[in-house]
Amino acid sequence: MDVLQLLVSGLANGCVYGLIALGFVLIYKATEAVNFAQGDFMMLGAFVTLGLTNAEYMHLPFWVAAPLAIAIMAILGYLLDLFVLRHLFGQSQTAVVILTIALGFVIRFIAGAIWGHEPQTLESPLALGDLQMGGVVLGMADVAVIIVTVLLTIFLYQFFQRTKLGLAMQAASQNQMAAYYMGIPVKRVQGMIWGLAGAVAAVAGILFASKGAIDPNAGLLGIKAFAAAVIGGFGSLPGALAGGLIVGIIEPFAARYLEAGYSQIAPYVLLLAVLIFRPHGLFSQVRIKKV
Amino acid sequence: MRIHFKTSYEHDIRLFPDRWTFSVYAALLALAFGLPWLIDEFYLGEVTNVLIWAIAGLGLMLLTGQTGQASLGHAAFLAVGCYANTILIELGLPFIVAFPLAGVLTGVIGTLIAIPVLRLHGIYLAIATIALSILADDIIVLLEPWTGGVSGKFPDMITIFGFEIERWSMPARFYYLVLVVTIICTLFYRNLLRSPLGRAFAAVRDSEVSATAMGVHIARTKGMAFGLSCMITGWAGALMGYYAGTFNNETFSLVISITLLMMIVIGGLGSIHGAFFGAVVVAFLPQALSIGKDMIGGGGVAIPGLETGVFGLILILFILFEPMGIYGRWLKIRTWFELFPFARKDMFKRQKSYLKTERLR
């Protein structure tokens, strides 16, 4: 029972990591840039929702506020690409890495200035009650996290396989020049991917904030999501989720069965091991680009 | 305007391009040595801080600016240098032996770490080094018998042949120590760039494929870059330990790594001046902010996160509008004066290039 309990709570945590990692991978696949501020996007999404729902701020109903927050974050992501990242086109990756790290600092500062640095809880209907199943206690929020993640994954998969825009995004990510010749507005598509990543970050933020308190430093969770993305393979969407689950599951088990000092380094040791032995991740399709 | 006709290879690799430049740097050096008589102890301490950051910046610049490997884990190497120095002195070695040895040790550790990491480039390297930086914190706690763990350590007074140096009671002596190390590191760096190895670094940075074609051993060059970079960083770490007076596992955090990288970008990637300009910005930004707050009237109110927020904003503006950093801006201003009526706005315009995909490699 103990193992099952650890497994389930690890899964719920892992889903949040996986969702943040999904944001990294979306952007990496399309633009070859890594958004080091994705964790801070997640935090900002949570705080926007919190600002819209909580009684001391706007006090909108949760089911109105959540889609609104997702939309706001999507627009923010698009604008960010439009005004900032597009100008970096052709510059080295180091420039993008540093820029997004700096962006994370700025977002953290802005969120702290607006909502304060104290941990706050989101007044969300997901946060109520526990679920008891044969000795395993499961918070409703955890169940919601798992369900939403599964739904979102299916949605994204369908989106990329079936819709015109999704296919355009795939094309743009595989070969920008060829996609451009085929009449795909590559720049606008890239902006939309940033928007999509913003929306995914908002979903992750809402879920994370329903599970517990959130403060402006929660964005540092992004580093664990990195580990997840790398373990799964930076170029693969299912890999990101799987990596998130692996990191999420390793954490509680390491905390339970390892000595105190060794438990928190477990995800990073795994990360380094994966980087050294399979630099492209566990689930990557290592193959030469065809186009 | 001075025109340098480079008629031989010797001309090209001269330490100073002409007498005028040499005399400028000589004057700067004389000013640096006379500084303790010119300013009071508080500002001397600040200048010492700038120099220490500049050494650390030189260390990272060698890796990121010259070889093109972005590392977000250099705080870990600062820590290695700092702890190695303190532990070696506790083992009974004199400072004059322990200090260089600490740097060399950091370099060796850096090279060992680099061997597996060398297969990674770009983003993967950045992420692996982030992991290093986070791991360093926990490893210091785990190695408590040597490192003192959470309660930390404090370095003993520096003694060189019976001559005592201490940061608080004798700031001028400590300043001179740091200054000498800075000069050694700067000369080392400058001379390295004039050597075949330094040219190999630049070749690897600009294109690995063409560097291989020119006969540069990529992995060995990167390993050397990592090792030498870590060596300088280790010295900076040891000095930082003395400057702080006490340190523990949280002293060299991920934030320090990020600050270091941002510092050399603000200063100007790939130039020695850049490391110094960046260090000035990093060291004086807190003061500038508090003065700015006084002027606005927000006086005593502490705004948490303001420093990093403003720092991030400055950085974003620099990357967007002046990718070459403060040094690039300085070059532009100087060129404008040198060419006076003929300077044109687009002289430094960056050429557009297409996205170089990482996945093709």
UniProtKB/TrEMBL annotation, chain A:
<feature type="transmembrane region" description="Helical">
    <location>
        <begin position="6"/>
        <end position="28"/>
    </location>
</feature>
<keyword id="KW-1003">Cell membrane</keyword>
<protein>
    <submittedName>
        <fullName>Branched-chain amino acid ABC transporter permease</fullName>
    </submittedName>
</protein>
<feature type="transmembrane region" description="Helical">
    <location>
        <begin position="192"/>
        <end position="214"/>
    </location>
</feature>
<feature type="transmembrane region" description="Helical">
    <location>
        <begin position="96"/>
        <end position="116"/>
    </location>
</feature>
<dbReference type="InterPro" id="IPR001851">
    <property type="entry name" value="ABC_transp_permease"/>
</dbReference>
<keyword id="KW-0472">Membrane</keyword>
<feature type="transmembrane region" description="Helical">
    <location>
        <begin position="226"/>
        <end position="250"/>
    </location>
</feature>
<feature type="transmembrane region" description="Helical">
    <location>
        <begin position="257"/>
        <end position="277"/>
    </location>
</feature>
<dbReference type="Pfam" id="PF02653">
    <property type="entry name" value="BPD_transp_2"/>
</dbReference>
<dbReference type="InterPro" id="IPR052157">
    <property type="entry name" value="BCAA_transport_permease"/>
</dbReference>
<keyword id="KW-0029">Amino-acid transport</keyword>
<feature type="transmembrane region" description="Helical">
    <location>
        <begin position="136"/>
        <end position="160"/>
    </location>
</feature>
<keyword id="KW-0813">Transport</keyword>
<comment type="similarity">
    <text>Belongs to the binding-protein-dependent transport system permease family. LivHM subfamily.</text>
</comment>
<keyword id="KW-0812">Transmembrane</keyword>
<feature type="transmembrane region" description="Helical">
    <location>
        <begin position="63"/>
        <end position="84"/>
    </location>
</feature>
<keyword id="KW-1133">Transmembrane helix</keyword>
<feature type="transmembrane region" description="Helical">
    <location>
        <begin position="40"/>
        <end position="57"/>
    </location>
</feature>
TrEMBL record, chain B:
<feature type="transmembrane region" description="Helical">
    <location>
        <begin position="45"/>
        <end position="63"/>
    </location>
</feature>
<keyword id="KW-0812">Transmembrane</keyword>
<feature type="transmembrane region" description="Helical">
    <location>
        <begin position="20"/>
        <end position="39"/>
    </location>
</feature>
<feature type="transmembrane region" description="Helical">
    <location>
        <begin position="70"/>
        <end position="89"/>
    </location>
</feature>
<feature type="transmembrane region" description="Helical">
    <location>
        <begin position="122"/>
        <end position="143"/>
    </location>
</feature>
<feature type="transmembrane region" description="Helical">
    <location>
        <begin position="224"/>
        <end position="245"/>
    </location>
</feature>
<protein>
    <submittedName>
        <fullName>Branched-chain amino acid ABC transporter permease</fullName>
    </submittedName>
</protein>
<keyword id="KW-1133">Transmembrane helix</keyword>
<dbReference type="Pfam" id="PF02653">
    <property type="entry name" value="BPD_transp_2"/>
</dbReference>
<feature type="transmembrane region" description="Helical">
    <location>
        <begin position="251"/>
        <end position="284"/>
    </location>
</feature>
<dbReference type="InterPro" id="IPR001851">
    <property type="entry name" value="ABC_transp_permease"/>
</dbReference>
<feature type="transmembrane region" description="Helical">
    <location>
        <begin position="95"/>
        <end position="115"/>
    </location>
</feature>
<dbReference type="InterPro" id="IPR043428">
    <property type="entry name" value="LivM-like"/>
</dbReference>
<feature type="transmembrane region" description="Helical">
    <location>
        <begin position="296"/>
        <end position="321"/>
    </location>
</feature>
<keyword id="KW-1003">Cell membrane</keyword>
<feature type="transmembrane region" description="Helical">
    <location>
        <begin position="174"/>
        <end position="192"/>
    </location>
</feature>
<keyword id="KW-0472">Membrane</keyword>
